[in-house]
Amino acid sequence: MEPYIIHVQHFEDTRIAFVEFSDLRNAPQSVRECRFQTIGWILNTHEKLNSLVEDCGQITHEDNFVDALTRLASLDSMIASDLIRAENWRDKFNMIWPILSFQEHEQALLLNYDTYDYKNYWPGFDTFNVIFHKYFRKAPYIELKKVPTENLLD
Q1: Is the pTM of this model over 0.90?
Q2: Kind plus residue range of the DSSP H or E element containing 69
């Protein structure tokens, strides 16, 4: 079974669009292994749905996304709601990154997004990741814990 299904229903005067998320068993490996990427994947799906219904002002059931973020990414429902309403990826990143643990930061930063299995779902994060790795190869004595991570997308 697919990890999600997008439904678009056409009625005479209205279109309703929504997504049903199942679980992460068939999701890409980076989504299954990295909470940061799970969140990005769900937010990308939200953008896909919005692009499908952009023209006609259709109804989208955003509570399905809040549910997916709470159930599949273990987020608080208030944070999930705020993420769905955030206007751009920078705001979304700045909401999520500070609440992730050091281990989750490390995991997201150390994934090799150049492989087929580890897709990046955060715009620009794979580029940052490459820069991060180059920096640490040049200065291996610096500990990962001491790298400032706030405002990475500024």
Answers
A1: no
A2: helix 63-72
- Amino acid at residue number 124: G
Q: What are the structure tokens assigned to 69, written together?
A: 């973020």
Contact 37, 107 (CB under 8 A): no
**CA 125 to CA 71: how far, in whole Å?**
24
- CA geometry: angle 150, 99, 66, nearest 5 deg: 120
Count of Cβ atoms closer than 10 Å to residue 98 Cβ: 10
How many angstroms from the chain centroid is the CA of residue 128?
15
How confident is the model over 107-125, as pLDDT tens digits?
Answer: 888 888 888 878 898 988 8
Query: 79: which 2 tokens?
Result: 């944070």
- Structure tokens that stand for 5 in this block: 């299904």
pLDDT value at 90 more than 50: yes
Q: Please check whether residue 34 is in contact with residue 18, taking contact to mean a CB–CB distance below 8 angstroms.
A: no
Q: What single-letter DSSP state applies at residue 56?
A: T
